[in-house]
Amino acid sequence: MRTRPLKVALLGCGVVGSEVARIMTTHADDLAARIGAPVELAGVAVRRPDRVREGVDPALVTTDAAALARREDIDVVIEVIGGIEPARKLITSAFEHGASVVTANKALLAEDGPTLHEAAEKHGNDLYYEAAVAAAIPLVRPLRESLAGDKVNRILGIVNGTTNFILDRMDSTGAGYGEALDEATALGYAEADPTADVEGFDAAAKAAILAGIAFHTRVRLDDVHREGLTEITAADIASAKRMGCTVKLLAICERAADGRSVTARVHPAMIPLSHPLANVREAYNAVFVESDAAGQLMFYGPGAGGAPTASAVLGDLVAACRNKLNGSRGPGESAYAQLPVSPMGEVVTRYHISLDVADKPGVLAQVATTFAEHGVSIDTVRQQGKDGDAWLVVVTHSAPDAALSSTVEALRGLDTVRGVASIMRVEGE
Ligand code: HSE
């Protein structure tokens, strides 16, 4: 084993960074044996230097992240600050000064991954980011490496633990969205400002990263259709139950049937209780991958938290260090396919629509005609009386999302339709 250590700079020492530092210390001997050289924490950049960080030598702490990232003696920079800037500048500077980078920064990768990949390539360094998607669950490496010889056609996943917790509580207790969010906040699953999770931004960034790797195509956050779960009601969940379904916030990345384009989207959807994703409870994550040769694969585990995210960071650190030692490089960006990313309107899906209608002759015919006029075929219709009016629950066959949403608009305009109580896509069948 080489005795001269590989030097690591840690940018950020919050929930994840402090776990990374702890594991680097407690597992130092094993890490050295696995890498073939000791790894030494050479600097830790923080915003608040006065805060006590157990296990971190105060002499290593600095507030000058920029100076740490450009130190010529650093072999690997770990970026766990998050956000776009200064993370982007720090990472590109690290590459320019000879370091490989391990990052957990999903927002930056989804916004501007190509800049990071190009900087890594230009300077002959590695960019690893297993922790950016679903923390400890191995997804990036399986897609980038294990499935590199296969053809991935679809990814269907629960990639946000906060929203899965909220939906799970709504399903198991009958609680409304607000009550379930309050519980998620009290238990520390939801942040004080839960927007990134509940509006689907976090899941959309992960979908962009997964789609990019799976389809060898650059997919950015703006390419991902995004709907959050703030409008989901207890009635939606009850309606799903009546259909033998549950509601999940899904990230779905698909290759079109003709193989010429891809789509990426995040939205709530009903899935049958028989689908394995329906049993992913509490704040767990799970991702289904469908490929030509492997068939269906499912990856399951904790998708957030200090230690699970640090586990993924450490795995990447070992890989980056091994490459440094061998003078080799890990996989770079693979975007050769350059498939166009189609808009949501072209996605083929199914709708579950609850209508509040007048209960009188011809209503069903009028509603059915509206579907037919938009080329949407009905799968099932269920009617339930309601004080002289009725609830009409229609589930469609598969159709382009544009046709389905224009059907809903036309239904809203019918005299006999008092309101569209809920619309939800049905997936996973
Ligand atoms: N806030 C995310 C979640 C974890 O709830 O899954 C970090 O991406």
From TrEMBL:
Positions that bind NADPH: K106
E.C. numbers: 1.1.1.3
Chain sites annotated for binding L-homoserine: E191
Cofactor(s) essential for the protein: a metal cation
Active site: K206
The reaction(s) this protein catalyses: L-homoserine + NAD(+) = L-aspartate 4-semialdehyde + NADH + H(+); L-homoserine + NADP(+) = L-aspartate 4-semialdehyde + NADPH + H(+)
GO biological process: methionine biosynthetic process; threonine biosynthetic process
Sites where the protein binds NADP(+): L11, G12, C13, G14, V15, V16, G17, S18
Family annotation (Pfam families): ACT (PF01842), Homoserine_dh (PF00742), NAD_binding_3 (PF03447)
ACT domain: residues covered: 352-425
Record function comment: Catalyzes the conversion of L-aspartate-beta-semialdehyde (L-Asa) to L-homoserine (L-Hse), the third step in the biosynthesis of threonine and methionine from aspartate.
Protein's name in the database: Homoserine dehydrogenase
